[in-house]
Amino acid sequence: MSSAFVKEPEGGEAFEDLPDRPISPHPNFVTPEGLAQIEAEVTRLRAEHAAAQTGEDKVAATKTARELRYWSARHASAQVVDPPKGASEVHFGSTVTIERDDGRRQTFRLVGEDEADPAKGSISYVSPLARALTGKSVGEVVQAGGSDAEIV
Q: CATH number of the domain that 100 lies in?
């Protein structure tokens, strides 16, 4: 078949209709640090988008526009929640340590969805573990990944 009959995207055409990133249905609770991260991302993306437009890079402009829409929406809906001070129960912003059945101890901070990074010790407040921990106190046992864990 001749390539004259095949419509293939050239350059950035394949990226012209990138769908928007899905926005979580949960309230956009963020820590003060999380808000700063979102603001930094919006600033960075604005600069990248302007550079892509100036350089007439359609692919980069489309990608950065998509990311900028997402992060701008997250910034607009952000609800800053200050970490609890001296709370006896686990809440958004709390740092909590659990001890698993096998003796392993893990410490997590409950944060907003966009700032969560389990490898660095922060989990989203809507994650199953965070939901199990919320409202609990030291000494209580929760279900954590198929086994029990005590809040220590």
A: 3.10.50.30
